Backbone:
């Protein structure tokens, strides 16, 4: 019998990707298609679920076009935690004041509901303990409240189904309205085994969601990777050019798929401090437009300013804490492209790499190496330039969306050297932000000994090395750089029930299934060790970093005086 395959589909902020993956975790083929983002107002970011599904179909067809369809054993979806709105006929409902029905998805990074989030936080309701004590505008309750208060007639009254985007994709594929515990627990305040807290929704003015056993937001749940419905429906199979009945695993949020694609990797022989330790000694960072910091524990741990603990949100039977930075890749791009020397940078990069197509960040990394004095570390160039990186607010561990970015140490020049230094200081600030999250997690009881990085920024050697140096922890990079796609494929593998360890969808059996799939499909590629000689430098820079936060709050307090 010919070897089977699994398909992983990843819907990020800017594109949809798919991969055809072997049972051993090798990516045979990948494909990518861009998706549209609209910004109708400041802080509003919207997408189209129809556009997203169409692009999913395009990339899946492309990666499976040369494979006998019977060999595709399962498919899994992950996506950003965006909010999809459909009416009673499962047709799109506009989430914008312009009324465009195609634009029915409020993106994860949409901050229109900051005021609603602050009001929900002020209730002090017990469910807030599961989101670090503070309701973020990136979670779904404040977004739902905003829609009710601002688009009541055009959206709220017409809406019959509110989906997290990962659940929308699995519904579109299978017709099953069962939601993944990953989305509901992490972004909607659902808490197994009790379920929805009716008092919470009533206390914030969304008591109408209690109707019909919470049918609008989900009354049936399952662990990620559980087989949904009867697999692909006839319509979905036709859309994707796959066989009807192909197994579909309950979905994951994109960051959690990256965590799944890495956290269970076999690390024997790499001499890491987490070797011979449970996987709770590992933290996965999914670094792209934003960064998510994922740590798991056997018992629930409450970390101020960090989301969770969430049971079975990434790995069945284990508790997840999720820290994060709302803008990382997006911040680096903002700082570099907004600089006066950006045009010069583009031209220099083109001249230096005319044929290889090296990107501007590789050029900047090389430029910084030339700037460093002989035998001196590049990191030390950041001694006099300091950045507080919360240009889009702080997700963790301060949990304050009102915070702004800060830069200290600018000179009256805009040379390429100045741009390179600002880029370096920004990367260092992001790494110190990770240290800030790590410190909060450790104080709450986590024992994290190794970082596992994946996502677009994990391909940037300077970003990776500085994270090792600033945190003092080794960084593990995956053999297959597309760990998020591997994680999505693991969901399809679990749903296919190809593993002998699985008999039923009980948490114990699902955990064994996950572990088997993760060990087979997640592989270590490279380990980056911290430079111990820079420990003192980063201890001093971290002190400056924390003072920047204190100073910003002090300045806000001064200006708020009447």
Residues:
């Amino acid at each position: 019998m010919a070897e089977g395959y699994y398909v992983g589909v990843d819907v990020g902020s800017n594109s949809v990707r798919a991969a055809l993956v072997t049972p051993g975790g090798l990516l045979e083929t990948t494909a990518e298609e861009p998706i549209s983002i609209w910004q109708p107002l400041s802080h509003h970011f919207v997408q189209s679920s129809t556009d997203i599904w169409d692009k999913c179909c395009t990339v899946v067809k492309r990666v499976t076009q040369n494979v006998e369809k019977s060999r595709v054993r399962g498919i899994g979806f992950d996506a950003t935690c965006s909010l999809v709105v459909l009416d009673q006929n499962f047709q799109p409902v506009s989430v914008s004041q312009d009324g465009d029905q195609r634009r029915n998805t409020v993106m994860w990074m949409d901050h229109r509901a900051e005021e609603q989030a602050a009001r929900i936080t002020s209730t002090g309701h017990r469910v807030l303990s599961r989101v670090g004590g503070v309701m973020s505008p990136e979670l779904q309750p404040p977004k739902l409240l905003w829609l009710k208060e601002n688009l009541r007639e055009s959206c709220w009254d017409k809406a019959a189904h509110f989906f997290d985007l990962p659940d929308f994709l699995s519904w579109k594929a299978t017709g099953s309205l069962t939601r993944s515990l990953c989305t509901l627990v992490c972004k909607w305040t659902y808490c197994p085994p009790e379920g929805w807290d009716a008092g919470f929704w009533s206390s914030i003015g969304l008591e109408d969601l209690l109707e019909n056993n919470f049918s609008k937001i989900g009354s049936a749940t399952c662990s990620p990777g559980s087989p949904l419905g009867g697999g692909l429906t006839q319509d979905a199979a036709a859309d994707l050019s796959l066989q009807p009945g192909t197994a579909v695993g309950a979905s994951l949020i994109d960051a959690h798929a990256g965590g799944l694609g890495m956290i269970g990797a076999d690390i024997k022989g790499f001499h890491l401090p987490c070797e011979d330790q449970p996987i709770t000694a590992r933290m996965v960072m999914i670094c792209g437009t934003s960064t998510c910091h994922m740590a798991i524990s056997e018992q629930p741990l409450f970390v101020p300013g960090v989301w969770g603990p969430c049971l079975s949100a990434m790995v069945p039977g284990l508790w997840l804490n999720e820290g994060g930075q709302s803008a990382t890749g997006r911040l680096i791009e903002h700082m570099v492209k907004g600089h006066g020397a950006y045009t010069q940078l583009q031209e220099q990069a083109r001249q230096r790499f005319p044929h290889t197509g090296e990107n501007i960040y590789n050029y900047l990394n090389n430029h910084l190496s030339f700037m460093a004095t002989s035998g001196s570390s590049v990191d030390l160039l950041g001694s006099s330039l300091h950045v507080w990186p919360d240009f889009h607010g702080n997700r963790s561990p301060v949990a304050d969306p009102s915070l702004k970015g800060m830069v200290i140490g600018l000179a009256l020049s805009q040379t390429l050297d100045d741009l390179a230094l600002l880029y370096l200081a920004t990367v260092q600030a992001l790494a110190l932000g990770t240290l800030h999250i790590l410190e909060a997690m450790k104080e709450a009881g986590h024992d994290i000994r190794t970082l596992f990085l994946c996502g677009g920024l994990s391909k940037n050697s300077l970003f990776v090395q500085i994270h090792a140096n600033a945190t003092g922890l080794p960084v593990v990079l995956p053999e297959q750089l597309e760990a998020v796609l591997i994680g999505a494929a693991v969901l399809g593998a679990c749903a296919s029930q190809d593993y002998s360890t699985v008999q039923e969808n009980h948490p114990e059996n699902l955990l064994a299934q996950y572990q088997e799939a993760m060990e087979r499909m997640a592989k270590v590629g490279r380990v980056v060790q911290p430079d111990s000689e820079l420990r003192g430098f980063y201890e001093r820079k971290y002190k400056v970093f924390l003072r920047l936060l204190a100073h910003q709050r002090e300045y806000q307090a001064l200006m708020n005086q009447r």
The mean pLDDT is 93. The first strand starts at residue 5 and ends at 11. The CA atoms of residues 487 and 542 lie 33 Å apart.
